[in-house]
Amino acid sequence: MHPAHITLSALLLAAAASSAIAHDTWFARAPADAGPGALALGTGNLYPKQEFAIDPQYLARQGCRSAAGTVQPLRTLRISDVALLLAAPAAGTLTCWAQLQAFEIEIAAEHVALYLDEIRAPKEMRERWAALQARGVVWKERYTKHARTLLASEPAAHSLPAGIDIGIDPDMNLDLRLAPGQAPPKVGMPVVFQLLSGGQPLPGLALQFRSELSPLGFWAQTDAQGQVRMTVPLPGRWLLRGTELKPSVDRPDAWDSRFITLAFEALPAPARAIPTAP
User: Fold this and answer.
1) Which of 91, 92, 114, 140 has its CA 20 to 30 A from that of 16?
2) Domain for residue 277, yes or no?
3) Predicted TM-score (pTM) of this structure
4) Which uninterrupted H or E stretch holds 133?
5) What single DSSP character describes residue 18?
6) Does residue 158 form part of some domain?
7) What is the largest CA-CA distance in the chain?
8) Do 21 and 1 meet the contact criterion of CB atoms below 8 Å apart?
């Protein structure tokens, strides 16, 4: 099976989200006064606007990987109104990641349908909720947030050989990465991403692509290799996001979820040379 192939036409046909229940957590560029290469880890209703900061005490694991394979931790700078500001290691970092501690919440019954729509929950999960709701069960969920950012799309990284494997943190229980053998994303070029659970491909999960330049988002589903493919339609910053929702493994009538984001930047398409007259 080929990965889902997303084009500009799919982007234009997508519907804009009017509100959000499923808050995502993602990496973004930090304000300039935080220093060169600093990152902002925050949570928001709708990309690209971060609204809530992450307290560093809730970071279960985090780190960065260089082109040489060296893994180093992120360093906390400060907490702003909307994000945790972090210093990435020196130049040459290809990717950074974070996994938050698990939290438990309850969602009011009238909001659950919107939540299930926003995460593209599969039919069997909707049917399970309908049965629970008919019994008067309250929605109780334990969720974990995972975030990765791809820094290999910075202009300097394009001098590196194509096909660099950015690697994964083996402790991350859910991870989303640029697939091995892929060059950094660039407008007009196809690129493949891969979703991993415990280091193994996770098929059949809905993932949404969102651009900072458009309110529209579009969806794809991971194939048997946990992969989705897109042809980048717009330059700038993007977020690939998804949520895996399952019945709780240890709590009757409850739910476990894992949120994942991958923030990356797509460079403009290379300029075409204008042929000279003979």
Assistant:
1) 140
2) no
3) 0.87
4) helix 123-134
5) -
6) yes
7) 80
8) no
